[in-house]
Amino acid sequence: MNKAELINAIAAEAGLSKVDAKKALDATVKSVSNALVAGDKVSLVGFGTFSVASRAARPGINPATKQPIKIAAKKVAKFKAGAELTAAVN
Description:
The strands form two sheets. The protein has a three-stranded antiparallel beta sheet. 43% of the residues lie in helices and 30% in strands. The chain is built from three helices and five strands, in the order ααβββββα. The radius of gyration is 18 Å and the shape is elongated. By secondary structure, the chain is of the alpha+beta class. It has helices at 3-14, 18-37, 83-89, and strands at residues 42-44, 48-55, 58-61, 68-71, 74-81. The mean pLDDT is 96. It folds into two domains: 1-40; 41-90, IHF-like DNA-binding proteins (HU Protein, Chain A).
């Protein structure tokens, strides 16, 4: 499902116009992104939790030259599915 299909599904499920569904989706994504940038967790009960994790610096290998390289530390977004979502998928 791509963004346009998700907007259509939201509009149909909530009885909204596609324009309102797009605004709602964009606002949701922006709010979750802003919370993660601020270092907060976003928990949606039954759906899952979005969080930020830190990855430590580590050694790696350049696949083209086979030379060792250092991969820098960075922060990554994580999602852990909730119990209801996990049960629905299984």
